[in-house]
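Note to self: user wants both folds in one dump. Writing first protein now.
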Amino acid sequence: MSYKVIITTNFSLNLAELQLPLMKALRAGGVDVLGCSPDGPGCDLVRRANFLVENYEIDVDGTNPVTEAKTVFALRKIYKAHKPDLVQHSSTKLAIYGTWAARAAGVSLVVNTITGLGFSFIHGGLYKKMIDALWMTSGRGASWTVFQNPDDR
């Protein structure tokens, strides 16, 4: 039985340009890998490398609770259908929503890689407090979270 991994990004070009080398290395090691991102030109590049890509919708700057919930449920549906052993998310919003979705779908390992905490953490305010609360609830569900910017560790 092959180990299955889903690599999830919030932009299709991130999947193609940043994650495709990892996907290829995992496949070379015998891992069943698929990509997950919003539809876009990067998805075609990943598909041309013979990977399955599942699409979902995300408003990367959105704050509408209904739209945000739709993203969580869409990810949960994908994760539940494919039953991965591990999912990897590569943005702050995906680290929150993707972790919730993965845990709800029964995924045993969740890895989040965050390049930086971004605007809301730097400038503070009510929005930062809301993100902090969401982060605390999802952070407990992640197996590993890697902060790539040393200032955010």
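First done. Writing the second protein, which came from a different request thread.
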Amino acid sequence: MPIWSFHIYADKLLFLSRGLHTHSNVSMSLIGLEFTDFFEALKKGCPKLLYNTPSYTISISSGWYDLVFNLCKNIEKAISSLRRKNIPVILQIKSKFGGLRVYLSHSEYGISELTKEAEEKSYSICETCGESGKLINVDGYCFVGCLDHSKDK
């Protein structure tokens, strides 16, 4: 990893660890990171939730990295007082029929409301760049794209 990338990556982690990261009003974003860097930031930001989660359980494009990070941070807050055996396990996070899908081992403590909210938001966020987008159906393949990325798939 080049030195300048490390500094940017470290700045993002520092910024995120202070809890200042939001999708709508953010000066630094996870969008555009390589998946491995995104997954490391996610594990550092949500250590209880992602304690034993392998990277292959998450399969999304980088435009949704901020959305998923914020969702996981909110779930992390909801489960902060739970013992390890009661913490839900992420089974899968992916795109399905153009929207975000989050599958957990169980959804208590208000978690299902958090996942539902993120899934609904995903229909208005471009999967590629994170800008405002809309659901597009091309011959049965559904995805969310902005004006620039609506013809990419």
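Dump finished. Worth passing along: The longest strand covers residues 90-96.
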